[in-house]
Structures
1.
Amino acid sequence: MKFARFVVTGMLAGLLVLAAAPAGAAPVAPAGTTIEPPIGCLPTAARPDPVVVLPGADGTTAQTAEQWAVMTQHLRGAGACVLVFQGGIIDGKRWAGDIPAAAVQVAQFVDRVEATTGARKVDIVAHSAGSIVANYYLKVLHGAPNVEHAVFIASEGGGCDGAGSLAALGIKNLPITPVQVLRTLPFMAPILAQLLPDLATTLQMAPGSAVYESVFVDGPVTQPGVRYAVLASKADTLATPAGTCSFITEPGVTNVFYEDLFPGRPPVDHSTIRSSPDTANWVVDQLYS
């Protein structure tokens, strides 16, 4: 999760310069670049939908192959055509650019995958911040007709409070969460975005932003024709509250905790859950069982 740093670095500054900020200004972030895999595999009759993997924002693009080796090996072992797409890249960080622009990058890649392979649809497997981009693509950009499954791991949704990100910075036990601040003082988001451009993308994920409202407030998150499944960890201290932050509580969605599915197995957290063989097997089951 990304959207809590503003409490430390920007809240007081935002209040001090309220009069200087244009009312209603929207957070603006650069689009970022992409790293696209070669589309060198073809779907089969048994596995007709290529799997587009959208990693989270943890780590850097240099670490992606190692972070996702277990998942991609399991998917390919199950016969899938697997394509790891990274977008919104700024300074080696995934999804650090404008979220709508990153979703357009995903849409363009999906179009290329379908045109190149002849597939009618793809499956999406997304982790953490990648799920926000995926949901924006599916819902706001009307990408749902191109997608069969949306499988999310430690995803970030409409129920996050931002406290976990502050805790990761050593700031704990505050009387109010970052999300509560923004809901109480919604004018702060555009102010902080102008004062602290590095937070522009972060603030797009926060309540009151156009991105947040369009994905999580204006109608259901889930889209017709797409099969959704979400896996979260009770030990997730970033996407907080655990489960509440990740789960999509709408009809037809599979929402499960790793610990309930795999009691006694090695523990996972927000990041390592995507590298667990148990998680990889669960993803394969969601796609092909």
2.
Amino acid sequence: MPPLWALLAFGCLRFGSAVNLQPQLASVTFATNNPTLTTVALEKPLCMFDSSEALTGTYEVYLYVLVDSAGSRNASVQDSTKTPLSSTFQQTEGGRTGPYKAVAFDLVPCSDLPSLDAVGDVSQASRILNAYLVRVGVNRTCLWDPNFQGLCNPPLSAATEYRFKYVLVNMSTGLVEDQTLWSDPIRTNQLTPYSVIDTWPGRRSGGMIVITSILGSLPFFLLVGFAGAIVLSLL
């Protein structure tokens, strides 16, 4: 499946129903070091849900997060009435017992997207990237702030595989209109122990150090042997 960024770059190509698409990692061109230990940057589902015809009314896109497991591909994010789940990070133990809603944002019509040509402009880069990308795990205070209001999008766990799903919600009815598949598992990075970090480019292994020491001492022993031979020849 080609990355959404590549398709958008060719003029916001139209897709079919979002039901056959998956959330994708953001392109490394625009999100380096992704995933991190606690965050994942994804491409927003732009030009997916309004591909066949323009949508009328107000819509939002919900992003659900789930720790990968044997049955995670079939996990539902709606009830029997098509009402989207409102489960939180805390209620699902960070996605371990079920999907939680991490992010919600307005559906931007494909025709209203900012041009990617200006992404190199420092004054516009942040606005453009926010229009195209969504970051999971960026709110470090919502779990502990008693005054926090809104969706809590706290840091993810390191070295953990997650799946993600976008859901289109009609805000007039409060019901699910469309949704993507669950993404393939995306693994956050693992913290590297300090003891194994090579802090000096010239660091060598123990074996190399021993060999270097022997080779470094060899000229000394040869010189001593040569001097001894000269002394013996004079006696």
3.
Amino acid sequence: MKFATTRLVAASLLAASLGFAATAQTPPATPGAAPAATHQGHRGDPAKMQERMARMQERMAKRQAELKQKLQISSGQEAAWTSFTTAMKPGARQKMDRAAMAALSTPDRIDQMRALRTQRIAEMDRRADATKAFYAVLTAEQKKVFDAETLRRGHRGHGGGHGGHHGHHKG
């Protein structure tokens, strides 16, 4: 958990510094000129974001259905399963507004990033508590299956279950 938090903070600081460096390199727009086309990538397009979110929800539902089938959830465990899967749904995340962050002083940006980190840690804790509560109602055999399935899910690629490694690559 400590490693994951340290990694999250480092990634946040790196992302913020890269974003500010890119902003600093962008020449100011001339008055009256049409805004230049900027490369926002797939993150800037709301339609693509909706599409990605829909695909993510479909994959999550499929994985949950597969896990439920493998665990052979009994009718007596159904309420715990429902609570668990509900808790695993992504919550609303506060996002860093690049323009607002750029307007802040460095100490204020650090405080903002700390607040976001605190929110994300609370979300991880909520999910961890829900997982422990669900795990407590499983039989010994189901626990073995759950352990094997969740261990495998958490180690896809070098970066865990979130699309692989996002760090620097040697080329």
